[in-house]
Amino acid sequence: MTLTTAEKFFLLTERIGKKPVLRTRFTTQAYFVLAVVLDLVTQGVLAISHERLTVADSKKLAAQPTYVTVLRERLQANAGQDETLEADLKFVTSWNVANALYDGIGGGLLKQGLTEKKIFQNNLIPKVIYLPLDASRAQVLADFKADIFSDAPAVTTRNLYALLEQQDVLKYLFSSSELVKLTAAFEREVATDSRYQETQRLTAMAGHIIQMKKFEMDGWLS
User: Fold this and answer.
1) pLDDT profile of the chain (222 residues), mean per 10
2) SS3 content of the chain, % helix, strand, coil (to 5)
3) 186 vs 15: CA distance, rounded Å
4) How do residues 156-169 score in pLDDT, each as one tens digit?
5) Which among 88, 79, 91 is positioned nearest to 32, based on CA atoms?
6) CA nearest 13: which of 110, 3, 25?
């Protein structure tokens, strides 16, 4: 099944500018990995059970594209440990997982004609970047807004909203007046949605994990 949230997150967030954010920026990479996790939860592949991130359907997980293999291995390694949900989610900060997902999803979007392949030189090492076309980015944003105002946004739209809200980037995608209306409509639609509350909990926990990892990385560099 298509990892829709992750694809849309990719098309909205990847850009080159000074640096490609999905290929080189630690925080955005981690939320990209979380987008894949949310897709797998939506598909019934993963589930939250007894405060653990568990594999709900091993056959569906095995049937995922090969670029999900590194993520699958991390999930399987966690399964045998006496851990917590927070510990289970720590792989969102893994460079190996993020890069495998980036190459797989970015390459898939290239085949669909939604991105173009670029080479970016970073620290003397050339990196392949899948840069979303302006039209692709604009279409994702238009569909996202229309779905929220439809009064019945899809689960993937709710996932995407949670990720963008956690990163505090919605204000860069919409004008202030438009964002007020969008937020009011969305909050009304998810007010009693327990599944969305679980999504919010996962994104908030991932945000905490990302922040702790950043403190750790700053410690190494100081």
Assistant:
1) 92 83 87 96 92 91 93 85 86 94 96 94 82 96 95 93 94 92 94 91 92 72 44
2) 70, 10, 20
3) 27
4) 999 999 999 999 99
5) 91
6) 25
If you ran DSSP here, which 8-state letter would residue 133 be given? P
**Adjacent-strand bridge partners of 54:** 47
What's the pTM?
Answer: 0.93
Task: Name the DSSP class of 131.
Answer: E
Length of the chain: 222
Contact (Cβ atoms closer than 8 angstroms) between residue 52 and residue 83: yes
Per-residue tokens: 185: 């409509």
CB 131 within 8 A of CB 15: yes
The residue among 112, 172, 160 whose CA lies nearest residue 136 is 112
Tens of pLDDT along 169-185? Answer: 999 899 999 999 999 99
Is residue 166 within 8 A of residue 207, CB to CB? The reply is yes
Provide the token pair at 128.
């392949």
Tokens linked to 59: 């056959």
In a 3-state reduction of DSSP, which class is residue 118? strand
**What token pair was written down for 212?**
């702790």
